[in-house]
Amino acid sequence: MANDQKNGKDFLFGVLFGGIIGALIALFFSPKSRYKLREDFNQQFCVAKEKTSKMTEDVYEKGTQFISLAKEKSTTASNLFNKVKEMSNHSEKALNVKEEDEKTLENSYNEGQQFMEKS
To answer: How far, in Å, CA of 41 to CA of 118, rounded?
Structure first.
Protein backbone atom coordinates (compact mmCIF):
# COMPACT_ATOMS: atom_id res chain seq x y z
CA MET A 1 0.00 0.00 0.00
CA ALA A 2 2.84 2.40 0.84
CA ASN A 3 4.40 1.57 -2.53
CA ASP A 4 1.11 2.45 -4.31
CA GLN A 5 1.04 5.82 -2.54
CA LYS A 6 4.66 6.49 -3.53
CA ASN A 7 3.92 5.59 -7.16
CA GLY A 8 0.85 7.86 -7.11
CA LYS A 9 2.88 10.76 -5.74
CA ASP A 10 5.63 10.16 -8.31
CA PHE A 11 3.07 10.08 -11.11
CA LEU A 12 1.41 13.29 -9.88
CA PHE A 13 4.79 15.02 -9.62
CA GLY A 14 5.66 13.87 -13.15
CA VAL A 15 2.39 15.18 -14.57
CA LEU A 16 2.81 18.53 -12.80
CA PHE A 17 6.45 18.89 -13.81
CA GLY A 18 5.68 17.86 -17.41
CA GLY A 19 2.85 20.37 -17.57
CA ILE A 20 5.10 23.18 -16.41
CA ILE A 21 7.84 22.25 -18.90
CA GLY A 22 5.28 21.97 -21.71
CA ALA A 23 3.83 25.38 -20.87
CA LEU A 24 7.29 26.99 -20.88
CA ILE A 25 8.17 25.42 -24.24
CA ALA A 26 4.84 26.61 -25.67
CA LEU A 27 5.61 30.14 -24.47
CA PHE A 28 9.04 30.20 -26.07
CA PHE A 29 7.72 28.98 -29.42
CA SER A 30 4.56 31.10 -29.36
CA PRO A 31 3.93 33.18 -32.50
CA LYS A 32 2.76 36.14 -30.37
CA SER A 33 4.97 39.10 -29.64
CA ARG A 34 6.29 39.42 -26.14
CA TYR A 35 4.04 42.46 -25.48
CA LYS A 36 0.92 40.60 -26.60
CA LEU A 37 2.02 37.60 -24.52
CA ARG A 38 2.55 39.84 -21.49
CA GLU A 39 -0.93 41.32 -21.99
CA ASP A 40 -2.44 37.82 -22.15
CA PHE A 41 -0.63 36.87 -18.95
CA ASN A 42 -1.95 39.97 -17.19
CA GLN A 43 -5.50 39.21 -18.31
CA GLN A 44 -5.26 35.60 -17.19
CA PHE A 45 -3.74 36.69 -13.91
CA CYS A 46 -6.64 39.11 -13.29
CA VAL A 47 -9.17 36.37 -14.06
CA ALA A 48 -7.39 33.94 -11.73
CA LYS A 49 -7.19 36.63 -9.03
CA GLU A 50 -10.94 37.33 -9.30
CA LYS A 51 -11.79 33.62 -9.14
CA THR A 52 -9.52 33.17 -6.13
CA SER A 53 -11.09 36.16 -4.42
CA LYS A 54 -14.59 34.80 -5.08
CA MET A 55 -13.62 31.35 -3.78
CA THR A 56 -12.10 32.92 -0.66
CA GLU A 57 -15.31 34.85 0.00
CA ASP A 58 -17.40 31.70 -0.50
CA VAL A 59 -15.20 29.66 1.84
CA TYR A 60 -15.30 32.43 4.46
CA GLU A 61 -19.10 32.64 4.20
CA LYS A 62 -19.54 28.87 4.47
CA GLY A 63 -17.12 28.78 7.41
CA THR A 64 -19.06 31.51 9.18
CA GLN A 65 -22.32 29.63 8.59
CA PHE A 66 -20.76 26.42 9.87
CA ILE A 67 -19.45 28.14 13.02
CA SER A 68 -22.86 29.68 13.65
CA LEU A 69 -24.57 26.32 13.22
CA ALA A 70 -22.02 24.62 15.48
CA LYS A 71 -22.59 27.24 18.22
CA GLU A 72 -26.35 26.80 17.91
CA LYS A 73 -26.10 23.01 18.18
CA SER A 74 -23.69 23.33 21.09
CA THR A 75 -26.12 25.59 22.94
CA THR A 76 -28.98 23.19 22.24
CA ALA A 77 -26.93 20.25 23.50
CA SER A 78 -25.90 22.18 26.61
CA ASN A 79 -29.53 23.08 27.36
CA LEU A 80 -30.58 19.46 26.88
CA PHE A 81 -27.79 18.28 29.18
CA ASN A 82 -28.87 20.78 31.85
CA LYS A 83 -32.50 19.57 31.60
CA VAL A 84 -31.43 15.95 31.96
CA LYS A 85 -29.25 16.87 34.93
CA GLU A 86 -32.15 18.77 36.52
CA MET A 87 -34.50 15.82 35.97
CA SER A 88 -31.92 13.51 37.49
CA ASN A 89 -31.70 15.76 40.56
CA HIS A 90 -35.50 15.79 40.87
CA SER A 91 -35.57 12.00 40.59
CA GLU A 92 -32.88 11.70 43.24
CA LYS A 93 -34.81 14.05 45.57
CA ALA A 94 -38.02 12.09 44.97
CA LEU A 95 -36.21 8.85 45.79
CA ASN A 96 -34.85 10.36 49.00
CA VAL A 97 -38.34 11.60 49.98
CA LYS A 98 -39.76 8.13 49.27
CA GLU A 99 -37.10 6.50 51.44
CA GLU A 100 -37.77 9.00 54.24
CA ASP A 101 -41.52 8.38 53.95
CA GLU A 102 -40.96 4.62 54.11
CA LYS A 103 -38.81 5.03 57.24
CA THR A 104 -41.40 7.32 58.83
CA LEU A 105 -44.17 4.85 57.99
CA GLU A 106 -42.14 1.96 59.38
CA ASN A 107 -41.39 3.90 62.56
CA SER A 108 -45.06 4.80 62.95
CA TYR A 109 -46.03 1.17 62.42
CA ASN A 110 -43.49 0.01 65.02
CA GLU A 111 -44.67 2.64 67.50
CA GLY A 112 -48.27 1.58 66.87
CA GLN A 113 -47.40 -2.06 67.48
CA GLN A 114 -45.55 -1.21 70.66
CA PHE A 115 -48.51 0.85 71.82
CA MET A 116 -50.88 -2.05 71.09
CA GLU A 117 -48.66 -4.48 72.96
CA LYS A 118 -48.62 -2.21 76.02
CA SER A 119 -52.39 -1.82 76.00
So the answer is: 113
